[in-house]
Q: What sequence folds into this?
C-alpha cells in the first residue's frame, strides 16, 4: 500500500493505493449542515492548509438501524449530522479523463450511506477504467422535512435538502474530478431504490442541469414526490410530536439531532421524500421530463422481477395470515381501488398477488412511464429486468429488491453478500455480464457488450427489455398483459 496525494480546489488530499487502485475516502463536498445550516441548502466546504488525510470513511447521516438495511450490511455505528462527504476510486490520479460513475445510495430516504461494503468501487476502477464516486446526503427529517409553508422563505427548500446535497456533490465532481483522472464531461449518475428515485428527481431539478450526462436508475424513478400540502402535513405532525408551535419553527435548529431522529421515527413509513416546493423543484419531475428537461440525457432504467417480496416476507402482518386478514391487508393498501383491482386481476387475493401488484405500483409501472416519456424525445433509453432468483429463505425472496446491487458492483465476494444471494457459482457469470454492461454504459452511453445478446433501445413499438438471468435474453414487452391491466387500473384511479 502506498500513499497518493491529489490537489483539489479546496486543498490537498492524501489517499491510499491498493492493488493498482487509488482510493480517497471522507472528502468534504459541503460545509457541515449543523446549527444555522440545518434545514438549509448546502454551502461549499472551507479550504484547508497542508495535506488532509483521506483514508477512512466519514460518519454517515443520522439514522436508526432498520431490519432490512441491517440485512444488507448497513452500518450505523458512526453517525453524525456532519455527514456531507464522498469517496473516490480511480485507476490513477492522472490526466487521462476517464468516465465517471457517481453512485446515489438507497434506503427509503431515511437510511443508508455511500460507504457500504457493496459500494466498493475497486472493480469498476480496475476492470472498467472508470472513476467511481459514492456520496452521503442528508436523510429523513434532516434531508426532507418541508418547512417552507410554516417557517417562511428561509426554509423554502428544506424539504429537498437531501437532493440539494446530491447537486452539491455533482458540482464538486465538476470542479475536482479531473484531478483524480476523471472526465467532468462524461458523468453518469447511478443509484438504486431511493437513490434511483433521487435521480428521477434530478432529471427535472433545474440546478442539476448540465451536471451529468447519463443516468442509470435501478428499481426507482421519479414517481414519488410530495405536494407542498402533503409535505406540510408531515412537518406539522412532527412539530406536534415535539410540542413546538407552527410559528416557532426555528426551535428545530436548537434540538439535539437524536431528538429529531426519534421524532421522525413516529411518522408513517415513507413520509419523508422530495417535495415540489416551487423553488428548487418547480414542478413534478415527470412533468419536467415530459417537457424535455432531460432530453439530452441517455437513460438505462430497470427493475427486479419480484421487488416487493423482501418487504412482505419480513412483515409480521403476513405471518400465518388467514383469508380475512389477507383481505384486510389488501383493503388497507389499495382502498377504493380494490373492486376494480379484483375485477382486472381475476385471481384469489394472496401474498403472491399482493407482491406482484406492489411491485408494479411502486417499481415497474413508474419505470415504464419514465422510459416512455424520455423515448418520446428521441433520447436513447435502455430497459432491463433482473430475474435471477436467490435461493435463501427457501427461495421466498425470488428476484427481490436490491438483489442486483452486488452483481452490478461485482462485490459478490463481500462477507455480507452470501446470506442474501447464496453461494452458487453461477452468480459470478451473471455478475460479470451486468458489471461489464454498466461499464460500457459509463464509457459510451450504450450497455451492449460481447457477453450479452444484442440489446436494442426501448421504444413504444417493441419495448425491448434485457432480462438478466443465468441465460440473459431480450424480450419485447415482458408481462404485457399485466402492464395493460395496470394501465387500466391507473385510468380508473384517475377517473
A:
Amino acid at each position: 500500500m502506498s500513499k497518493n496525494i491529489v490537489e483539489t480546489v479546496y486543498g490537498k488530499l492524501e489517499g491510499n493505493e491498493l492493488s493498482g487502485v487509488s482510493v480517497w475516502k471522507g472528502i468534504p463536498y459541503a460545509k457541515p449542515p449543523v446549527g444555522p445550516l440545518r434545514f438549509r441548502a448546502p454551502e461549499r466546504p472551507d479550504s484547508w492548509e497542508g495535506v488532509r488525510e483521506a483514508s477512512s470513511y466519514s460518519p454517515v447521516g443520522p439514522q436508526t438501524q432498520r431490519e432490512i438495511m441491517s440485512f444488507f450490511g448497513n452500518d450505523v455505528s458512526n453517525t453524525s449530522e456532519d455527514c456531507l462527504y464522498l469517496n473516490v476510486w480511480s485507476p490513477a490520479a492522472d490526466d487521462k479523463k476517464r468516465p465517471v460513475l457517481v453512485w446515489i445510495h438507497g434506503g427509503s430516504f431515511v437510511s443508508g450511506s455511500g460507504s457500504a461494503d457493496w459500494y466498493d468501487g475497486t472493480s469498476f476502477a480496475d476492470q472498467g477504467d472508470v472513476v467511481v464516486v459514492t456520496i452521503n446526503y442528508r436523510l429523513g427529517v434532516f434531508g426532507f422535512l418541508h418547512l417552507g409553508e410554516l417557517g417562511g422563505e428561509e426554509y423554502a427548500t428544506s424539504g429537498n435538502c437531501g437532493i440539494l446535497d446530491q447537486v452539491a456533490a455533482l458540482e464538486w465532481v465538476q470542479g475536482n474530478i479531473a484531478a483524480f483522472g476523471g472526465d467532468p464531461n462524461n458523468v453518469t449518475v447511478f443509484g438504486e431504490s431511493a437513490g434511483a428515485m433521487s435521480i428521477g428527481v434530478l432529471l427535472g431539478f433545474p440546478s442539476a442541469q448540465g451536471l451529468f450526462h447519463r443516468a442509470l436508475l435501478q428499481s426507482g424513478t421519479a414517481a414519488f414526490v410530495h405536494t407542498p400540502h402533503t409535505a406540510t402535513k408531515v412537518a406539522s405532525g412532527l412539530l406536534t410530536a415535539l410540542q413546538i408551535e407552527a410559528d416557532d419553527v426555528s426551535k428545530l435548529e436548537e434540538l439535539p439531532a437524536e431528538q429529531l431522529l426519534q421524532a421522525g421515527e413516529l411518522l408513517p413509513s415513507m413520509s419523508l421524500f422530495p417535495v415540489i416546493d416551487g423553488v428548487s423543484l418547480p414542478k413534478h419531475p415527470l412533468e419536467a421530463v415530459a417537457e424535455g428537461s432531460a432530453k439530452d440525457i441517455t437513460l438505462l432504467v430497470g427493475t427486479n422481477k419480484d421487488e416487493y417480496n423482501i418487504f412482505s416476507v419480513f412483515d409480521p402482518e403476513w405471518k400465518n395470515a388467514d383469508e380475512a386478514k389477507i383481505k384486510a391487508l389488501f383493503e388497507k393498501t389499495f382502498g377504493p381501488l380494490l373492486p376494480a383491482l379484483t375485477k382486472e386481476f381475476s385471481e384469489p387475493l394472496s401474498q403472491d398477488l399482493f407482491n406482484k401488484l406492489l411491485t408494479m405500483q411502486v417499481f415497474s409501472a413508474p419505470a415504464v412511464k419514465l422510459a416512455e416519456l424520455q423515448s418520446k424525445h428521441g433520447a436513447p433509453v435502455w430497459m432491463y429486468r433482473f430475474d435471477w432468483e436467490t435461493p435463501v429463505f427457501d427461495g421466498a425472496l425470488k428476484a427481490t429488491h436490491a438483489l442486483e446491487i452486488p452483481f452490478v458492483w461485482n462485490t459478490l465476494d463481500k462477507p455480507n453478500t452470501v446470506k442474501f444471494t447464496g453461494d452458487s457459482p453461477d452468480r459470478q457469470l451473471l455478475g460479470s455480464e451486468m458489471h461489464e454492461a454498466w461499464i460500457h454504459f459509463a464509457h459510451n452511453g450504450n450497455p451492449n457488450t460481447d457477453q450479452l445478446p444484442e440489446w436494442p433501445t426501448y421504444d413504444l413499438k417493441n419495448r425491448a427489455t434485457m432480462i438478466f438471468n443465468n441465460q440473459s435474453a431480450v424480450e419485447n414487452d415482458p408481462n404485457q398483459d399485466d402492464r395493460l391491466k395496470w394501465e387500466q387500473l391507473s385510468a380508473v384511479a384517475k377517473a
Summary: Residues 2-321+366-487 form a domain with the Rossmann fold fold (CATH 3.40.50.1820).
